[in-house]
């Protein structure tokens, strides 16, 4: 603040060192002890340029209204440049409340002590301004960092909200599919239970048919064995045939009886064979039916495996939904945490903005006061400028009158010279005539 600015007078070495460190100008002690017009103009201009209060194009510039009052403005270039710089330095020193008054003589005929004091005051203000800027830099950097963090958090919140919206849309899209899969799974489980029951009944019937076929196979094998035995006995009997007719008759009768028994056994065996073949056909038909049922069971098994795979997929989808719910909860927690951080940052930003507004208000008050002072100084300067312009106009009028008088005097002098030359010529002619008369 301007009110806390003080005026510790710096030594010449300190002034030279500070000007060199700030890269404003490189000067010597001799120039400060015995300053000249060019030196003070240069050093004051560089100091004002460093403080951004004076620009190179400001030198020698006047308003058009002021230029119109001058007949030959190019003749007043140096004076306008000096007056402009003097006004800038005066305004700046009055703004920082310099105890000494800066006059036009301090530029045209500078004094070493006064020049050193004014330069020391401006250098002090430069140091004061630089320290204030350095003190405010961390606050400005913190504000910029906080603004960047707030913008990043806002972008992250937008991304999280978009991700949550996408997850909700996916959930809404997948819910009818999951319901359809659940209904299909229920139907498949019912079909599987009914098919398992049918499979059990088929297994029991198949086992019964298998037992009957085994019994028929045993009967067929026993009949075949009896047929083989009867054929062997028939062969043995033929070998035992004798030549006596009685015995032969008796044996023939016995053989006939045995043959009849064998034929009866053969018939019974054939009947049993036909029965077994019929049973075998029944078994074959049953086997075909069982193969058909087996193919159906394989199809059902494939359907069961597909149902199990769909059930696994449904379980995976449920796990995925559960994970997504957990992710949503974690994202909600992170969102709440980020919102809390954002609120804290907003509160901190508001506090910093309040502090900045307070500082800006104080600075604006000081600036308004300075503006009022500057306006008053400008008004005084305008009145002085008008007086100077009036004096310059009077001087120009006097010079124009003197020029006209000189011109009229010169013309009269020329006329007198011509008249005197004519008189001298006439006098010479008169003398010549007198001399000629005297000679006669």
What can you tell me about this protein's structure?
With 440 residues, the chain is mostly helical. The protein has a domain at 12-161: Ncd80 complex, Nuf2 subunit (Actin-binding Protein, T-fimbrin, domain 1, Orthogonal Bundle). The chain contains eight helices and no strands. The chain has helices at residues 12-21, 29-33, 37-50, 64-69, 77-95, 105-108, 112-239, 245-439. α3 (37-50) runs parallel beside α7 (112-239) and α7 runs antiparallel to α8 (245-439). The longest helix has 195 residues, at 245-439. The chain starts with 11 loop residues before the first helix and ends with a helix. Residues 5-143 form the Kinetochore protein Nuf2 N-terminal domain. Pfam families: Nuf2. This is Kinetochore protein Nuf2 N-terminal domain-containing protein.
Shape verdict? rod-shaped
Q: Report low-confidence residues grouped into runs of 5 or more.
A: 56-77
CATH class membership of the domain at 12-161:
Mainly Alpha
**Could you give the count of β-strands?**
0
Count the helices. How many?
8
Which structural class should the secondary elements be placed in? mainly alpha
CATH architecture of the domain at 12-161: Orthogonal Bundle
Task: Write down the Rg.
Answer: 67 Å
Structure at a glance:
The protein is mostly helical and 440 residues long.
Describe the secondary-structure layout:
Blueprint: H1 12-21, H2 29-33, H3 37-50, H4 64-69, H5 77-95, H6 105-108, H7 112-239, H8 245-439
Helix pairs in contact: 1-7, 3-5, 3-7, 7-8
Domain Kinetochore protein Nuf2 N-terminal: 5-143
Keywords: Cell cycle, Cell division, Centromere, Chromosome, Coiled coil, Mitosis
Coiled coil: 143-198
